[in-house]
Design a protein that fits this description.
α1 runs parallel beside α2 (74-98). The chain has helices at 14-26, 74-98; strands at 2-8, 36-43, 52-60, 63-71. The chain is elongated and about 50 Å long. The protein has two helices and four strands, in the order βαβββα. The chain has one domain: 2-Layer Sandwich (Double Stranded RNA Binding Domain). Helix content is 38%, strand content 33%. It has 99 residues and is of the alpha+beta class. The longest helix has 25 residues, at 74-98.
Length: 99
């Protein structure tokens, strides 16, 4: 799986990048045919600068899965997004096995 992490308007620390990479590797246990994962990290607007948004886009054969979660930290947002995208991956795998 190819992983692309794109922080928007800031530089992500190596710790954060490593954390996200470790989490994404765990998705391969649910579905091993993931082609690419794109992660967008966005800071909140000026009114809510404390909020951070994590968007994950997964490219699997025949489909693109997407989730966006907002939380106080990028780590917390990543955990929330991973929980949601794991469910989407399980459903996708079930549908492909039915065919």
């Amino acid at each position: 799986m190819n992983v692309v992490i794109r922080p928007v308007h800031f530089d992500a620390s190596t710790q954060l990048v490593d954390f996200i990479n470790r989490k994404l590797k765990k998705l391969e246990t649910f579905f091993d045919r993931i082609v690419e994962a794109e992660v967008f990290l966005k800071l909140g607007t000026k009114q809510s600068i404390k909020d951070k948004t994590v968007e994950i886009k997964l490219h699997v054969p025949g489909k693109t899965l997407f989730v966006s979660k907002t939380a106080k930290t990028f780590e917390e947002g990543t955990d929330l997004a991973m929980h949601t995208i794991a469910g989407q991956l399980k459903k996708t795998k079930e549908k492909q096995q039915e065919h």
